[in-house]
Amino acid sequence: MNPPIIALSQISKTYGLGDTLVHALDQVDLTLTAGEYGAVIGTSGSGKSTLMNVVGCLDRPSLGQYHLDGVAVADLDDLALAQVRNRKIGFIFQQFHLLPQLTALDNVILPMIYGNVPKLERQARAKAALERVGLGNRLGNRPNQLSGGQQQRVAIARAIVNEPVLLLADEPTGALDSHTTQEVLAIFDELHHSGITILVVTHETEVAQRADRIITFRDGKILSDVFTVKEAGAVPHGLGL
Q1: Pair 55, 217: CB distance under 8 Å
Q2: Is the pLDDT confidence value at 230 over 80?
Q3: How far apart are CA 85 and CA 68, in angstroms?
Q4: Distance (Å, rounded) from C-alpha 125 to C-alpha 160?
Q5: What is the DSSP letter of 146?
Q6: How many other CB atoms sit within 10 Å of the CB of residue 80?
Q7: Fewer CB within 10 Å: N-end or C-end of the chain?
Q8: Is 12 part of a structural domain of the chain?
Q9: ∠148-208-199 over CA atoms, to 5°?
Q10: Would you say residue 216 lies in a domain?
Q11: What's the half-sphere exposure (Cβ side, CA atoms, 13 Å) at 132?
Q12: Where does the ABC transporter domain start and stop, copy by copy (predicted)?
């Protein structure tokens, strides 16, 4: 059996005090093993965004234990937590979060600078990551010279360039049209097929159904956790990456 990448045990996150107390997460148990492709779905206020923040080490739980690739991250100080976040998690966001003054290549290089990757190696790895998502001919373009779908591809390349154990995507297609959404989801299929562990947080059923497992949240709790049914012998829809 594959080792757990995400292991949440009795995770709770509360905000406020007294009558204003809100249980954003309420004693959540969740495990995602290496190579799994999971999707977290739920309406606004269901707890899925709070879960993303906790899993991504962007916020700490109020109670419970979280192990990321075997590391008890709740016990780490802020510096150690930032180092684990940079080394073990690749983030993809709805609004891309690319630096407008940097080229596609330099945007992808950025997390490797924080990770102390040698300069010559940065260039090669960033170029390879952009080629992997079909942007080998756009290395010198800045974000305003790219379409929304191309910007999200740059963001995906940036997320995978440090070879993280977990790819965490928060509404990755929320700013894209339907055609571009399918192109981005095809890249996710290819990344999953190569063995990368993926967790997508979304409110779109179409996006969630591309995963192998759909985890539905309501009122800070897991309402259901089901595996999707794939056709026998089916292969991911890809771009030949």
Answers
A1: no
A2: no
A3: 10
A4: 10
A5: S
A6: 12
A7: N
A8: no
A9: 80
A10: yes
A11: 23
A12: 6-239
